Structure formats: structure tokens, C-alpha cells
Amino acid sequence: MILGKCRDCGETFSFEDGDLGKQGVCPHCQSAVPLAASGSVTASPATPIAGPGAAGVVGARVRQPYKVKWAKPFESGSLRANLAVWLLALSAVLALAAFFSDWSEAGLFERAAAGEDISDAEAESNDTRQALLGLAQMGVMIAGTVFLMMWVHRSYRNLPALGARHLRFSPGWAVGYFFIPIVCFYRPYQAMADIWAGSAPEGGQDLAGGVSGLRDGRQNQGASALVGFWWAAWLVSMIAGQASFRIAMRADGLTELLNAARVSMVDDLTTVVSAILTILLVRAVQSRQEASYLAWLEAAEARERTQAVSAAPLSGA
Q1: Which residue(s) pair with 25 in the sheet?
Q2: Three-class SS of residue 63?
Q3: How many CB atoms lie within 10 A of CB 119?
Q4: Cα distance between residue 195 and residue 6, in whole Å
Q5: Predicted TM-score of the model (pTM)
Q6: At CB < 8 A and 24+ separation, what contacts does 297-302 make?
Q7: pLDDT digit string (tens) for 165-215?
Q8: Are 64 and 31 in contact (CB under 8 A)?
Q9: Domain spans of the chain?
């Protein structure tokens, strides 16, 4: 066994004699390091490693991220994405059902305003239906938001491992900005633009300028379209939801109740559109990240084969 020390974090670790001269990973800070016999190991965060070996030192092929304190090797967010997509789809279905329920309620208020006698049974049936739909929507919205934010966190955390540099936020703030007043109107869009740009299969983007860091202008236009439409729908849905809630809370009398039902119908439709665009964005980003990492793995395998052929001894005639 040989003792080495990582100059990046200062911690020591041991590795097998046969791994001398190979690329390894510091088991403490996960930085890629060349394994040297001197006991002094220099960190090289962006260097890939390959080949089996001692656990935590020389592992499976992993692309090491550009060094930021929160960076970690790539980890797929497909499970979080799938759960978020399913819950968003259910949210869209419930919002569509709520639209027709609100439509029915608005008709009930219009009939009452016209002087028609509404039976207690019909009124109670309307109230029960609205309450059950509201509870279902609330539960699905909370669960969907949790998994969507978990996916945003994982996707942003993967960016350094995909070659993105000069990122503007951390994964925590990419999520936190959704819930902070004022900045929630623009920071989440910037974070998602970084995720889209940094997930491009080309890799190695400089994101100091946001989406403009993409080297392919055509992909930049795609990012502007999908991310822009998603964020516009998200903001409209958020504003419509707040307006619907406030009007419903202040409604007193048939006219105000009727107006509240109509605004709620608008809120339902914007929720459907926002959910659909969010599903499209999540699926597109996840596909880009998986494709980007797969492309790197294939390139790494090709380099290893080339190095193996170059290192093979030449046989004489």
C-alpha cells in the first residue's frame, strides 16, 4: 500500500501499489488526482478517471466536475424527472376537471342571480365537489413542487460535471429563488436558462453570460423559445392563482362569487398550460443531460482504446 495526500483538501489516503501512476479520486473531496509515490498528490478536478481498482480511489469511469465547492460527479435525475412529470400531468388533469367544475358553479350562480331557486341538495353537491377537487389539487401541487424542485437541484448540480463553468448560482439557490419574493419573478428563469445551456451535448460552456454561452446559435434559439414560453406560462399561472385566491376570499354576494368563479376558470386553464410546458421542459433538459454525459463516456472509451493501441508493443516480423 502507498500513502498519498491530496493537495486539494489536504487529506491522506492509501492506494494499491499496482495503481501507481494511474488517475484516481480522492475519497474525501472527490477530486480527480494522479496517484504518485511521493505521498504528495496534486488535485486535477477536471481530469477523468477510468478502470477498476481500490474502492474510493480508482473507481468506475467518472467525469470529474470543474471545481466548485458544491460540485459532484454526474448523477442522473431521471427518477426525479419522471416523478415530477407524472405529478405535473395529474395536476393538469385535475386543473381541467376544476375548470369544468368552476364552469358548473358559475352557471349555478348565474341561475341564482336570475332569481331561480337553487335547492339545498344542489348547493351542497356543488360545495362538496369543489372542496374535494380543491384538496386533490393542493395535495398534487405540493407533491409535484417537491419533486420538481428536487429535479431542479439535481440538474443544476450536474452542470459542472457536464463541463459548465462560471455558473451564477448554486443548486440550493436555483431552488430557493422560486420562493423568495421579488427575485422569484426572474431568478428561476436565469437558473433554468443555465441548466438548459449547461446541459448542451457540446459540453464545456462558459455560462457567465447565461444562455448566450452556448456555442451553437441554433440551440441558443431553442433555449430561448422553450425556457421563455415555460417561464411566461409559469408567471401567468402564478399571478392568476393569486388573483383567484384573493378574489374568492373577499367574495360576498352572488356577483362577486360569480366573478370569483370566472377568474378561477382562467386560473385552471393557465395551470394546464403551465403544467404541459413544464413537462416538456423537464423531459427536454433531462434528455440533454443524459445525451451529454453519454457522449462524454463514448469519447472517453474511444480515447482509452486509442491509448491502449498506442501502448501495445509492436511485434517483429
Answers
A1: 32
A2: coil
A3: 8
A4: 31
A5: 0.72
A6: 297/61, 297/63, 300/48, 300/50, 300/61, 300/63, 301/61
A7: 778 899 999 999 999 999 999 999 999 999 998 888 754 444 444 333 333
A8: yes
A9: 1-64, 78-294
**Which tens digits make up the pLDDT trace of 63-118?**
555 567 787 888 999 999 999 999 999 999 999 999 999 999 999 999 988 888 88
Q: What DSSP line would sit under 111-163, residue for residue?
A: HHHTTPPPPHHHHHHHHHHHHHHHHHHHHHHHHHHHHHHHHHHHHHHTTGGGT
Alpha-carbon Rg for the chain in angstroms: 27
Domain 1-64 has CATH 2.20.28: yes
Q: With CA atoms as reference, report the closest residue to 156 among 83, 226, 91, 71.
A: 71
Backbone phi, then psi, for 165, in 5-degree steps? -130, 165
How far does CA 44 lie from the centroid of its chain? 27
Distance, CA of 285 to CA of 293 (rounded, Å): 12
Q: Which one-letter DSSP state was computed for residue 12?
A: E
* Calpha distance 165→167 (Å, rounded): 5
Residue located via cell numbers 457522449: 295
